Each structure stands twice: as structure tokens, then as C-alpha cells.
């Protein structure tokens, strides 16, 4: 049953509100689908991509183009600078405020993004973690700078094998976060996960796009080639003075920093971008597959067919 789009506030607040969350691996077509859904439901889009927040990172994050941004109103695209501190907790607060405003005149809002933690923060709420002595993180950061990430990975595997097997193990920020919780609380980081979620005043319908692995990998390889043609190398070059910032510890940027720093050849750096993006896509699918209520579609499925299935869930 289709929902009414009446603008009378007295009517609006007696009806259910729906957040349609579009997930899936990178390069699968989430942006294109989100725009079609936003146009069909006469609504707006919230981005839950943790790197598309930053205005300096446009090409390498595959952010919506200027043309795509005109086709539907987007929120949380290029609204921050890499110099700003912005994390999932701040995003949860900002996005929920945005949703409250949108739901005053909309019964449906679209959310799209491949950052699983950020997606879950909105639909489910964040996990609670105890306050930890800041000196622990300082010590871990120092160890990372002096010895590299492999030492921290081994330490996490000893303290919390479950977390080691589930988090983005190549991301120093995530590894250090898990370790500081283990060390500071004396309990596994994973023991704090999924202990209790926040209540939401809206219902989430999750739509997943996927494809055979070879297709996903080929689409990723093609996207990286297109990014290079669009000027990714020059974009990264302008960001060299800021390469130590956490926002830039991102696939597509860190590899090209190694090229500019004389550590890798350009061909090798591009090959590493493709390889690391494929690994990232595999982790995305693992994360999103945990949600058993997701409506999964082949990436070639028409928006019309997907909308029909969404309508049947209302």
C-alpha cells in the first residue's frame, strides 16, 4: 500500500515513518538507485558514507556528481573538512536531527552508504562503551607509529579473537579503538557489541544490492580506472600536506601517498587501490549480510521492481 504524502502536521504524526536504507558493496550502483527512489517517493537522501562527508575528497570517494546532486536533495555530502573532527557519534546525532526535520513533511526518507557502522548508528543506535583512560590510546598510537599495525593486530587477536575476525582489521583507527576497550575495561571489545539498541521513532526497510563476486570486482577495477581518468592523482597531490589526518587513511588516498612519497610506482599504487577496494567490498558484504531482514536484489534489478517489493512491506 502506498503511503500518503499529506503535509498536514496533525495527519503526519499519526502515520508511520520509514527510512529506506540502501546498502551493498562499493561500485554496485547504490547512488543511482537512491536517486530513483527519492524521486519516486518525493523525498530526500541522507548519505551514510563516512568519507563522502569531506569536501576535499570528491573523486576518490565516488561522491555523487553535481548532476546527481541536482536530481534529488542530499544531506551529509561534503559538509565537513578533513581538518574537522567528525565521528560516528557526531553523525548519529546530526543525522537523527535531520531525520526529525524531514519527517515533519515526509513519510519516507532514503539513506544510502557503504559504511556499515554509520548505517547501523542511524537504524539501530550505537553500542555503549565505558570511558577509557586517554593514556591507553596515546600508548597504542605510539606503538603503531613505532612498530606498525601488525603488532597491534596480533595483540588484538590475543585479547579478542572475535573482534579481530569482525572489524576492519587493516584500519589502524578501528584496531586501536578495539584494543583500548580491551585494555581499559579488562573485557573483550566484542562483549560490548549489540547489548542494547536505541529505540527509533521510524521503521527501517533495508534494501541491498549485490552481484556475483567477479562482477563486483570488475566494476571496482573499472571505477578505479575512471577515477584516475577524472583526476584522482591531482586530488591526492593537493592533500599531501594533510596525509597524516585520519580522514585520509582511506583506500584510494593512502596508496597514492605512497607513490608521491617515492615508496611505490604509480602502476603498483593503482593496483593496490583496486586490491584494497576489493577487500573492502568483501568486508562490506560480510557486515551487511548480518542483517537477515534485508531485501536483497541483483544490481541489474529495475528500480520499478524494487519499489514494488518495498511497497509490499509497508
UniProtKB/TrEMBL annotation:
<comment type="function">
    <text>Catalyzes the transfer of a dimethylallyl group onto the adenine at position 37 in tRNAs that read codons beginning with uridine, leading to the formation of N6-(dimethylallyl)adenosine (i(6)A).</text>
</comment>
<dbReference type="GO" id="GO:0052381">
    <property type="term" value="F:tRNA dimethylallyltransferase activity"/>
</dbReference>
<keyword id="KW-0808">Transferase</keyword>
<dbReference type="Pfam" id="PF01715">
    <property type="entry name" value="IPPT"/>
</dbReference>
<dbReference type="InterPro" id="IPR039657">
    <property type="entry name" value="Dimethylallyltransferase"/>
</dbReference>
<keyword id="KW-0067">ATP-binding</keyword>
<keyword id="KW-0819">tRNA processing</keyword>
<dbReference type="InterPro" id="IPR027417">
    <property type="entry name" value="P-loop_NTPase"/>
</dbReference>
<feature type="site" description="Interaction with substrate tRNA">
    <location>
        <position position="115"/>
    </location>
</feature>
<keyword id="KW-0547">Nucleotide-binding</keyword>
<feature type="site" description="Interaction with substrate tRNA">
    <location>
        <position position="137"/>
    </location>
</feature>
<feature type="binding site">
    <location>
        <begin position="24"/>
        <end position="31"/>
    </location>
    <ligand>
        <name>ATP</name>
    </ligand>
</feature>
<keyword id="KW-0460">Magnesium</keyword>
<feature type="region of interest" description="Interaction with substrate tRNA">
    <location>
        <begin position="49"/>
        <end position="52"/>
    </location>
</feature>
<feature type="binding site">
    <location>
        <begin position="26"/>
        <end position="31"/>
    </location>
    <ligand>
        <name>substrate</name>
    </ligand>
</feature>
<comment type="subunit">
    <text>Monomer.</text>
</comment>
<dbReference type="InterPro" id="IPR018022">
    <property type="entry name" value="IPT"/>
</dbReference>
<comment type="similarity">
    <text>Belongs to the IPP transferase family.</text>
</comment>
<protein>
    <recommendedName>
        <fullName>tRNA dimethylallyltransferase</fullName>
        <ecNumber>2.5.1.75</ecNumber>
    </recommendedName>
</protein>
